C-alpha cells in the first residue's frame, strides 16, 4: 500500500530522548517499510527513517525558538493535502487538527488519538466530526467520547530487539521513567521507595511548562539520600536502567491513555507496579507482568513481592502483546478496510 504517516512536529521521528507519540510513529513507520509497504513520513527535517521523508520544518519545534507551534502544523497539513491523491491511506497522529481539511476530501484517512480525551472542550469537536474515523490506543481512552467514530483500539508496540533484558544486571533499586509532571506523581514514587527501604532512580524529562512544579515539589525531595535524579535517557541507556531495577513505579494520578514506559519495562523483563488508572488494567497483567495497586500502601506491599515474578515470562508477554509487528499488522487491517470500503465496524482491543 501507499501509506502516508503524518507526525507532530514538536519532536523528531524518532525523538532523541522523550517523545511518546513521535517514538510510536517511528516504530510503526519502520515496521511498515519492513513489511514491504511504500511509506512516506511527513515530519520534521531532522527525522531519520527508511521511508520517504517530507519535511514540514527543518528541525523539531522543541529545538526552535518559536512562539506559534500551530503555524508549522498548518504548513504540514497543506503539504499533505496537495499530494493526498498519491496515497491509498493517510494516517494522522495530530489529534483533531486534520478533521476540517480532510473529512470531505474523498481520500481515505484515519487519525490515531494519542492524548487525553476527557477535556470538556473536545465534546463539540467530536459532535461535529462524528463520522471521522479514529483509533484509540486503549479502551479506557475512548470512554469520554462515545460519539466518536471508533474503528478500533490498537495498542502501542516496540520493536522486539529495541530493548532487551541485560541478564548481568542485579536488581538493586526501583525506577521511575518518563516525564516530571503533577499527574505522573514522581513525588509518590519517592515516597514509595522510601517506605520500602529501597533506592530510587528518576530518569525523567522536565518540560519548560513543568519547571516550576519540578523546582517547588520534586527538587526538594530529590535531595534525599535514597533518590538519584538521572535526567532524560536515550533508548540505548534504557536496557541497563530498566534491567537493573526491581520494578518500574508508575504511580499516575490521571487517566493515562497508554503509558509507553510500562511496555518498555516489560521488554526488559522488569515488573511494573502501577496505580489503577486509565489504561493500566489493560497493559499490566496483575500477578504476571507486575501488580496493579490502588495507593501508596499497596505499592509498598507489591514491591515486597516483585521479585517473585518471572522476568522471562514478563519479556515473553511483551513479545506476545506489544511487539511492533503486532501493532503494524492491526493498522494494515484498518488501512485495507478503509481503502476498500466507506464504512468499518468498530472493535475493541483483545
Automatic annotation (TrEMBL):
Keywords, in A-Z order: Transferase
Record domain Glycosyltransferase subfamily 4-like N-terminal: where: 18-118
Entry GO MF terms: glycosyltransferase activity
Keyword Nucleotide-binding listed: no
InterPro entries: Glyco_trans_1 (IPR001296), Glyco_trans_4-like_N (IPR028098)
Protein's UniProt keywords contain Transferase: yes
Residue stretches making up the Glycosyl transferase family domain: 172-296
Pfam families membership: Glyco_transf_4, Glycos_transf_1
PANTHER family: BLL5217 PROTEIN (PTHR12526:SF595), GLYCOSYLTRANSFERASE (PTHR12526)
Entry protein name: Group 1 glycosyl transferase
Species: Caballeronia arvi
Amino acid at each position: 500500500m501507499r501509506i502516508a504517516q503524518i507526525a507532530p512536529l514538536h519532536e523528531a521521528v524518532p525523538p532523541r530522548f522523550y517523545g511518546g507519540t513521535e517514538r510510536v510513529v517511528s516504530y510503526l513507520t519502520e515496521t511498515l517499510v519492513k513489511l514491504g509497504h511504500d511509506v512516506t513520513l511527513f515530519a520534521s527535517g531532522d527525522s531519520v527513517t527508511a521511508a520517504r521523508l517530507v519535511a514540514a520544518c527543518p528541525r523539531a519545534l522543541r529545538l526552535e525558538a518559536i512562539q506559534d507551534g500551530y503555524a508549522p502544523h498548518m504548513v504540514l497539513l497543506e503539504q499533505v493535502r496537495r499530494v493526498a491523491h498519491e496515497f491509498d491511506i493517510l494516517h494522522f497522529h495530530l489529534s483533531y487538527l486534520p478533521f476540517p481539511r480532510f473529512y470531505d476530501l474523498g481520500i481515505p484517512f484515519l487519525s490515531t488519538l494519542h492524548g487525553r480525551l476527557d477535556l470538556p472542550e473536545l465534546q463539540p469537536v467530536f459532535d461535529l466530526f462524528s463520522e471521522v474515523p479514529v483509533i484509540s490506543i486503549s479502551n479506557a481512552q475512548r470512554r469520554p467520547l462515545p460519539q466518536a467514530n471508533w474503528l478500533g483500539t490498537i495498542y502501542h508496540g516496540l520493536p522486539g530487539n529495541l530493548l532487551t533484558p541485560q541478564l548481568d544486571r542485579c536488581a538493586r533499586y526501583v525506577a521511575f521513567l518518563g516525564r516530571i509532571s503533577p499527574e505522573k506523581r514522581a513525588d509518590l514514587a519517592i515516597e514509595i521507595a522510601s517506605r520500602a527501604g529501597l533506592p530510587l532512580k528518576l530518569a525523567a524529562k522536565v518540560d519548560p511548562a513543568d519547571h516550576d512544579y519540578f523546582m517547588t515539589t520534586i527538587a526538594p525531595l530529590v535531595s534525599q539520600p535514597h533518590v538519584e535524579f538521572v535526567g532524560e535517557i536515550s533508548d540505548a541507556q534504557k536496557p541497563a536502567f530498566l534491567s537493573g531495577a526491581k520494578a518500574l513505579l508508575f504511580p499516575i494520578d490521571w487517566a493515562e491513555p497508554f503509558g509507553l514506559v510500562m511496555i518498555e519495562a516489560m521488554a526488559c523483563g522488569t515488573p511494573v507496579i502501577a496505580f489503577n488508572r486509565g489504561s493500566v488494567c489493560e497493559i499490566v497483567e496483575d500477578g504476571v507482568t507486575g501488580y496493579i495497586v490502588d495507593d501508596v500502601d499497596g505499592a509498598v506491599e507489591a514491591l515486597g513481592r516483585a521479585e517473585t515474578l518471572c522476568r522471562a515470562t514478563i519479556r515473553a508477554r511483551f513479545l506476545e502483546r506489544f511487539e511492533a509487528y503486532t501493532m503494524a499488522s492491526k493498522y494494515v487491517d484498518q488501512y485495507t478496510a478503509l481503502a476498500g470500503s466507506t464504512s468499518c465496524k468498530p472493535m475493541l482491543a483483545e
